[in-house]
Amino acid sequence: MTVFDAIKSRRSIRKYSTKDIEEEKLNIILEAGRLAPSWKNNQCWRFVVVKNKEKIKQLALKSGFISKVNFFIKDVPVVIVACANPKESGFMNGQHYYLVDTAIAFQQMMLTAWEMGIGSCWLGAFNEEKVKQILEIPENIKVVALSPFGYPAEKEGLYAKAVKTFAGSKNRKSLDEIVHYDKW
Ligand SMILES: Cc1cc2nc3c(=O)[nH]c(=O)nc-3n(C[C@H](O)[C@H](O)[C@H](O)COP(=O)(O)O)c2cc1C
């Protein structure tokens, strides 16, 4: 699979099999994050790998920004919480680069996982305080995103279908709509 193949075929996965992720594969996923580019190469990201079933259940039940939106992660083998130390990144033109650094690293991890048949789903709708409480994340650290990692279930499930329809997940704007040549 080429990088472009992985980019083209990747989808957010919201229903997982209970099969564990092999330790070597998990390490490759983490390595893909470790090797990402970053502001001044400061590598502000930190990752909390959650395998403890009780903690995953707590995240599933309590981490959602509203209600139980993250309930679907309750039985996944691994959740990775992508965090950052903003002091190790930059701020310019009103933009916090810790978000950029960590998003690049996390997406590299997701694509690498996908290449190995492992699905994920970027979760942005979380309650940061709750996530920090559950995982004992220090005050000065920001939580950027969470994602379950696991092998996709054979059948997608109703919740996954509903979210995809709600988000219009299959749609992408055309190049005409998003690219300008030589001037805006
Ligand atoms: C910043 C960001 C936040 C997201 N937050 C959520 C979320 O909280 N819950 C969820 O189920 N999906 C979330 N998604 C996944 C998007 O809904 C999904 O990427 C989009 O619909 C395109 O579908 P695809 O990933 O299957 O191509 C998020 C994606 C991004 C990039």
Number of helices: 7
Please give the CATH architecture.
3-Layer(aba) Sandwich
CATH superfamily: NADH Oxidase
**Uncertain segments:** none
End-to-end gap: 35 Å
At the third CATH level, what is the topology name? Answer: NADH Oxidase
CATH class: Alpha Beta
Beta-strand content bin: 15-25%
Percentage of residues assigned to helices: 25-40%
Task: Let me know the largest β-sheet.
Answer: 4 strands, antiparallel
**Strand order across the largest sheet:** 1-2-6-5
Order of helices and strands: HHEHEEEHEHEHH
Ligands bound, unique: flavin mononucleotide
Overall 3D form: globular
Explain this structure to me?
The protein is of the alpha+beta class and 184 residues long. 38% of the residues lie in helices and 15% in strands. It has a single domain (3-157), classed as NADH Oxidase (3-Layer(aba) Sandwich). The chain has helices spanning 3-9, 23-34, 53-62, 97-115, 128-135, 158-167, 175-178, and strands at 45-50, 78-84, 91-92, 95-96, 119-120, 142-150. A hairpin with a 2-residue loop joins strand 3 and strand 4. The longest helix is centred in the middle third of the chain and has 19 residues, at 97-115. The model has no long low-confidence stretch (mean pLDDT 96). It binds flavin mononucleotide. Flavin mononucleotide is lined by residues 11-12, 14, 121-125, 163, 167, 169.
